[in-house]
Amino acid sequence: MTKDFIKVDVDTSVKEALYMMIEGYKEEVVITDEGHKLQGIFTMNDMAKIKKKNISFDSPIVDFAHKNVITIDLDSSAREARDIMLENNIGRLPVIEDERVVGIVTSNNIRDTFYLKMDELFNLQSNVFDNLHEAVCICDENGIVRYWNKSAEKLYGVTVEDIIDKNLEDFFPNALSIQVLKTEKRVDNVCHQPVEGKLVALSAVPLYNSKGNLIAVVSTDRDITDAENLTKQLEYEKKKVELLEHAYKKEIASKYNFPSIIGKNKKIIESIAIAEKVAPTSTSVLITGKSGTGKEVFARSIHEASGRTGNFVAINCSAIPESLFESELFGYVEGAFTGAIRKGKIGKFEFANGGTLFLDEIGDMPLEMQAKILRVLQDGIIYRLGSEKSVTTDTRIIAATNRDLKKLISEDKFREDLFYRLAVVQIHLPDLKDRKEDIKDLCNLFLEQVSKQEDIKINDIDEKAYKILTSYKWDGNIRELKNVIQRMVVLSNDGKITVDSIPEYILESASDSEDMGENQHDLERIVENVEKRTIKDVMSMVNGNKQQAAKILNIKRSTLYYKLGKYNIG
């Protein structure tokens, strides 16, 4: 709209109007009465018609003006003005306020360009707003909705047809846009609930005209209902994890502590005493002993008693391929090597930061890695594979081995400097066969644990079973004993552990021990035991084929039959 237009009264002559149009470079004049009400419009085209008819230019211009003039209110939109002009095929549209002409919308003889630009403007606005993820609402100064995009329809389930030209408060009584209209203060990214069940991040901005008067408020709403629900769910799951972690640590603490270690044997008591004393320090510990003697149990117990708040991380050096050692212990960054996972991965040293790293089977660690481990033990700094950025760790090292490290050192298979760095304190765990006095207590401990784990109640244990288990040699040490107990519990009948529950290979060994025990120098008995074991081994080897067994044993088949009967071998 332009306010720069020519206004004349009804008595103005055609000649006077023509001079005014020429001087003002205008194509039309607006004719009003004494009350400034619109009476018509006269254009240059009308002037050409008067000239052709030889009508006097002194005639009143109102006699030749267009009197049924289409107008538009000042509050109407530019789009409405455009539509009216297109529908009525007119190039001028007076703008009325309080029945007075206050302006005029005109194409200025470039009608096609004007309409094209208007279309581009409105289409651009519509495309931009309708493709925004956020809901957009524009209210005028009275709270009347003037614009409502597709995202707003989708978010609130209110159509454009239902809400346009209606008061926003009728749909959303607590709308922040109404608050902004009253306070004229913008709000940014406020968490708001316009209707029940819809949580949004809302921003609302007041708009002013050139005179500084508030004319509208634009609001954008972003749906965060799902995000908020997900946040609450994650918070709930986080609390569950924290509770489970607490329960797990409590369970571990009760399971792996020095009072829970069974031991009457002098050597094991000495080992426990050393471990208790060294636990609160940061000293490296080397635990030695054969496989299954409880090295990891001791390592965990030292960690639990240390007061360190970090994780206990165990790694078996014999189970890691040499090419993966460095990435497992130190981690790697993205792109460090082919197959590296995105964003990289932390290593065991970082994971155990503030806690304990248990290096089991340290004797199987490659020499190249031994040098790098020694470096970390000296300065506490690691480098992820593929990175030059140093990472400082406070990780205590407990190592364990069932091998003779000093022999490996002499064979140049283990670094002597690393050995002395790891073995600041050495703890040796004796074989189970050297702890006969502990076997019954260990049996009871494992019976209790396995019964609870498998939900199998054990009511009675044959004392003779204890005697047989105590006399066995236990090459697999405590690990073998626990596995045997588990088998006995699972295969028990009516909650009873009897001699029949014991594996056959242990019973046979016990039988031999008893026979030997009567007189260990009885040559005839010794020969019989050797003979019986040999025949059993051969019969098992040939799957019961007596002809082949007799041939291997270098005896007659009849002799074999006799001995099978004598020793009750099936």
Automatic annotation (TrEMBL):
Domain (PAC): residue spans on this chain: 181-236
Gene Ontology MF terms in the entry: ATP binding; sequence-specific DNA binding
Domain of life: Bacteria
GO BP, sorted A to Z: regulation of DNA-templated transcription
Residues covered by the CBS domain: 1-59, 65-120
Every PAS domain range: 128-172
InterPro entries hit by this protein: AAA+_ATPase, AAA_lid_NorR, CBS_dom, CBS_dom_sf, Homeodomain-like_sf, HTH_Fis, P-loop_NTPase, PAS
Pfam family, one: Sigma54_activat
Sigma-54 factor interaction domain segment(s): 261-490
Keyword line: ATP-binding, CBS domain, Nucleotide-binding, Transcription, Transcription regulation
PANTHER family: C4-DICARBOXYLATE TRANSPORT TRANSCRIPTIONAL REGULATORY PROTEIN DCTD, TRANSCRIPTIONAL REGULATORY PROTEIN
The protein, known as: Sigma 54-interacting transcriptional regulator
Species the sequence originates in: Clostridium aciditolerans
Lineage of the organism: Bacteria, Bacillati, Bacillota, Clostridia, Eubacteriales
